[in-house]
Design brief:
The protein is of the alpha/beta class. The protein has 8 helices and 8 strands. It has a 5-stranded mixed beta sheet. Strands 1-3-2 form a 3-stranded mixed beta sheet. Strand 7, helix 8 and strand 8 form a beta-alpha-beta unit. Bound molecules: zinc ion. The site of zinc ion has 7 residues, from helix 5. This is CRN domain-containing-containing.
């Protein structure tokens, strides 16, 4: 029978951390929810998508942002057949810093960043599957296609928590990953993924498959002074998305990734 499981190529990257993120992502892609959404919402041709995905490479790159641009965490060229997913090189700088430094918490932060990479790749895949069908822009029924996929899988959009809240750079510490619940949920439902029970197990690949899209959350609020960064790669549509989502700003948290025009 024809397989409905998409997988990134083992040759997608030669970077150690990105390679690990690809392995993690390929585990996610084995979860049935993914192929179900790809089939029923995206209506993809699995054979075409498998072939295209197998050719995708992942590279670090710098994002030259203009004055008030949001930081792009990951992105692709805006064309129907992009071959590369770019990851912002600030992440590589931070991972190098953690590797070479003597910071006690470096193992935990490295794992958080690598697992977050797999979420970024899921977001980009949400766009690529449409591009490969000839749709350059996210359809209006989806909103922003990357967030659409995140919402379908996790019931909210994925955000990286950093401190301090100002200017993301190599000096920003990545302290966790949160899921921002869509409208209709109470503010406190913006939740942090458990490091011990979810992120660490995802990283070690010891998590059972039924937990992948049913994450374990911490029962504590996001700490004050943290910034929740969400993926930005399609400015035009992200603004539309803004009105549909509770923002973490109501929790006293600054958020980037939403560009105001
Ligand atoms: Zn996007």
């Amino acid at each position: 029978m024809e397989s409905h499981q998409l997988q990134f190529s083992d040759d997608a990257t030669c970077d150690e951390n990105l390679c690990l993120a690809v392995k993690i992502l390929n585990n996610y892609l084995l979860v049935e929810s993914f192929s179900f959404i790809f089939k029923t919402n995206y209506h993809i041709d699995f054979e075409i998508s498998k072939k295209k995905l197998n050719e995708i490479k992942i590279l670090y790159a710098s994002h030259e942002k203009k004055d008030k641009d949001a930081d792009y965490l990951a992105w692709t060229d805006r064309c129907l057949d992009p071959k590369i997913i770019f990851i912002n090189q600030i992440f590589r700088q931070r991972l190098d810093y953690l590797k070479n430094g003597h910071k006690k918490t470096k193992k935990k932060e490295t794992e958080i960043i690598v697992v977050f990479f797999s979420f970024l790749l899921i977001h980009e895949l949400g766009h690529l599957l449409l591009r490969w069908k000839g749709e350059l822009n996210s359809p209006t029924t989806f909103g922003e296609a990357g967030f659409f996929l995140e919402n379908k899988l996790f019931g909210g959009t994925v955000q990286l928590l950093i401190i301090p809240s100002k200017d993301w750079s190599v000096n920003s510490e990545c302290i966790g990953i949160a899921i921002n619940k869509p409208l209709g949920y109470k503010e406190l439902d913006a939740k942090i993924l458990s490091y011990q029970k979810y992120i660490h197990k995802i990283y070690n690949m010891t998590l059972s498959f039924d937990i992948y899209v049913n994450p374990v959350y911490l029962k504590k609020p996001i700490e004050k002074g943290a910034r929740a960064m969400k993926q930005a790669d399609e400015e035009v549509e992200i603004e539309e998305q803004h009105a549909d989502y509770i923002t973490l700003e109501s929790l006293g948290i600054l958020k980037c990734g939403l560009q105001k025009h």
